[in-house]
Write a structure and sequence with these properties.
mainly alpha
Length: 96
């Protein structure tokens, strides 16, 4: 499960980076790294931390993916850099 969420975060980071949403891309990469770091040997003491990271990772993937989808036009892969970047600033404030 940890690997799957980390891979999803890395994928959404690539998508965000492609449209110039560097803050969302960085956040996704950092969260993926944190999840992968916990995977080196989760212990009963850190199960709750891992659970929280996984929940946050899943939520972040859904949030960024949804925001990127809003800017897709018919036949377009993604919206303009300014539309995505402007949307990410507002969303970044709610996630911090």
């Amino acid at each position: 499960m940890m690997s799957l969420v980390a891979q999803a975060l890395e994928s959404v980071a690539e998508d965000a980076d492609e449209v110039g949403d560097t803050q969302s891309a960085r956040n996704a990469v950092y969260l993926a790294g944190s999840i992968r770091g916990c995977g080196t040997g989760p212990t009963p003491e850190n199960f709750r931390a891992v659970e929280i990271l996984l929940e946050q990772g899943i939520s972040y993937v859904a949030s960024v993916s949804e925001r990127l989808e809003q800017f897709k036009g018919p036949g377009d892969d993604v919206g303009s850099h300014d539309e995505i970047h402007g949307g990410s600033a507002a969303a970044s404030q709610t996630h911090h």
